[in-house]
Task: inverse folding
């Protein structure tokens, strides 16, 4: 692992995660290049700021579930390649029902240079601490649709309230939100604002 990065589960006791891009449950329909294990990595600074958010959520009766953190540049490159491949329909209904995969970049859902690759972005949601159930947010992770935007119409009042709660927790902890994706947050003060890393997320120890 690159110096300055950590496995978030090692430094955030009680955190839950499901690294979607290490699984078959993502918009490409298979594990993505660079995701060799189902764990989530981030900078030390990301971890410290997430700890603040985790503590805020806990006071309110919630926990954090993480979907993605550091993203190798090779994964971003794979997303771009995938967006140009012929449509096979396998993940369209779940992840991009109203657009073509070629439109994902133009509409802001996939970046050619991602804040995730700088190591200080996180995709996440809330779950209830008492039941463990995910909090309804009016749309799943990586649903590339206007309904995923902050302030979107077409979701319930409770779902809107839950999105605002997550946003309040994250922004007051030191993160910036992203208009197009209710689940995506980036550190306000990134340690590597101009560096895009490409080391794989692996169980192998790097010196």
Result:
């Amino acid at each position: 692992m690159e110096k300055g990065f950590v496995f978030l589960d090692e430094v955030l006791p009680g955190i839950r995660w499901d690294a979607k891009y290490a699984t078959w449950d993502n918009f490409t329909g298979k594990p993505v290049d660079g995701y060799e294990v189902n764990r989530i990595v981030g900078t030390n600074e990301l971890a410290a700021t997430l700890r603040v958010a985790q503590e805020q959520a806990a006071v309110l009766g919630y926990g954090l579930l993480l979907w993605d953190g550091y993203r190798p540049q090779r994964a971003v490159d794979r997303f771009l390649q995938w967006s140009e491949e012929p449509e096979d329909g396998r993940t369209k209904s779940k992840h991009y029902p109203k657009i073509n995969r070629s439109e994902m970049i133009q509409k802001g859902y996939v970046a050619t240079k991602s804040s995730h690759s700088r190591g200080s972005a996180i995709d996440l949601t809330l779950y209830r601490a008492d039941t463990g159930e995910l909090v309804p947010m009016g749309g799943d992770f990586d649903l590339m649709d206007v309904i995923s935007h902050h302030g979107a119409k077409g979701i319930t009042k409770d779902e809107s309230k839950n999105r605002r709660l997550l946003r309040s927790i994250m922004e007051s902890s030191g993160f910036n939100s992203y208009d197009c994706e209710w689940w995506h947050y980036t550190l306000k003060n990134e340690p590597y604002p101009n560096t895009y890393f490409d080391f794989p997320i692996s169980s192998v120890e790097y010196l």
Q: What stands out?
A: The longest strand covers residues 121-128.
